[in-house]
Each structure stands twice: as C-alpha cells, then as structure tokens.
Design a protein that fits this description.
7-stranded mixed beta sheet; single chain; globular; Rossmann fold; alpha/beta
Length: 238
C-alpha cells in the first residue's frame, strides 16, 4: 500500500464489506478519512459541510436549554461534534447500526472519537435506528419512551436511495408519525439527503409535522472542480 493511502481496518458485516481508510490529499497533503460499505462511500472527511449544517440547522429550530438530542448515524462524527458545540445540548445519544464504526471511534482510529468519548453528555449506542423508531420506545436504552428535542438523521443516501430495503417504511406517513411521537412539542426532525429536494417526501413529513421545509446546502467539490449540493429536510412537531 502506498504512503498516501492506508487501510486502517476492514470488517465483514451483515450489510457487506466495511472499510476504514486514510489517505493524503494530493497537492495539500491533508489527511482524509473515508468509510466505505462495499463499493459505496458512506462518509469522507473531504466533504463535511452538509454534515455540520445538518446539526446547525436542526438546533437553530429548537429553543431552551438542557436539550436532549439524538443523532442517527455516527459516521466520522461531524454531525455529533457539531451538536456538542451547542452549549444548550444537555445530552446526546448517537445511534449506529454498525458496531464496528463505534469501535473505530472508541479506539481512536477516527479523529472525532477522542472528543466524543471525552464529553460526558455523549453516549454512543449500537442499534438499528429504524428498528428503534418502529418500537416506539425511543433511542435511549437507559430511558425507554424518553422524548427528545431534536432527532437528526444521516443514514440513507436519500428517502429514495436506501442502504437497505427494510428502511423504506421510515419515509412513509406512518414513519413520520412515529418520529413525531418521539419528539417533545416544538421539537425538530432533521434529515440529510444526497439528492435534490423532493416535494413528495416533504408532503409525507407534512402529514405529521408543521413548518416543513428543505434547505439546499452547497459546498466546494475539489474532485469535480465545482460546487455540489446536499439537502437538509427540517420539520417541527407542533
């Protein structure tokens, strides 16, 4: 393996081949961490603007202090780190279905892991976010049924492009209702998507939430020499 590229870990998971790798960006020498599932990139530290904006936009919608927040999807930890930068956040539960990713953070193989592990407000939970939503018991195994001020999700590529077909019910009116029931009044649901805004999914959210909107987040894409965009859906429990 070249000096510019290092595979830090490889695991076989029920979802397929999971790889964590580190490489040096040509020209700048900047260290880039990437997580791949089979041949798809789940996360790259080359592109973090939308992950940061996901948490920033969500928490801007919530008032008060001592906020209880859930992040669905740990990845490289940028959304969780951004949530913890808000002093109003009293507790953060980060749920990820891949125990291997949690281990990488705990072992220090992913840079964010040290900060997340040192913050007493933050707990990493190994679990299926979608199954926990269906259960109605919420995302905190220490407090079943607990309601939250913000549910911030970055797992599937978009409401149409799923990592697994069983996730599809999350993006239905029934799924939206289950989400709303896990939020406190005035709480916010935020979802990252790699695709442009979809009126159809916004209409689904509107069956259970108020103030539904889609924010387009732009960021430089050095691989393509132009700007790229992601979408953040925001919806509040009335």
């Amino acid at each position: 393996m070249s000096a510019r590229f290092q595979e830090l870990d490889y695991r076989q998971t029920p979802l397929g081949e999971l790889t964590l790798r580190r490489r040096l960006e040509p020209g700048t020498g900047r260290e880039i961490h990437e997580i791949k599932l089979n041949e798809e990139f789940l996360m790259s530290s080359l592109f973090t603007v939308a992950e940061v904006e996901l948490a920033t936009l969500a928490l801007a919608e919530v008032s008060g202090d001592g906020l209880n927040v859930v992040v669905g999807g740990l990845g490289l930890g940028y959304t969780a780190l951004t949530a913890l930068e808000d002093p109003r956040v009293g507790s953060l539960v980060v749920v990820d279905a891949l125990g291997e990713v949690i281990e990488w953070h705990q072992q220090g193989l992913i840079p964010a892991g040290q900060t997340l592990g040192a913050d007493e407000r933050c707990r990493l939970v190994h679990g299926d976010f979608f199954a926990l939503t269906r259960s109605g018991q919420g995302y905190d195994p220490e407090a079943p049924g607990r309601l939250f001020d913000a549910l911030i999700v970055d797992i599937d590529h978009s409401p149409r492009h799923l990592l697994h077909p069983t996730n599809a019910d999350f993006y239905t009116p029934e799924g939206a209702q289950r989400l709303a029931e896990l939020l406190r009044p005035g709480g916010v649901f935020a979802l990252w998507s790699n695709d442009p805004p979809e009126d159809e999914y916004a209409a689904v959210l509107a069956t259970a939430f108020t103030d539904v909107r889609a924010e387009v987040v732009s960021f430089p894409n050095p691989l393509q020499g132009r700007d790229s965009t992601n979408t953040v859906y925001l919806a509040k429990r009335g």
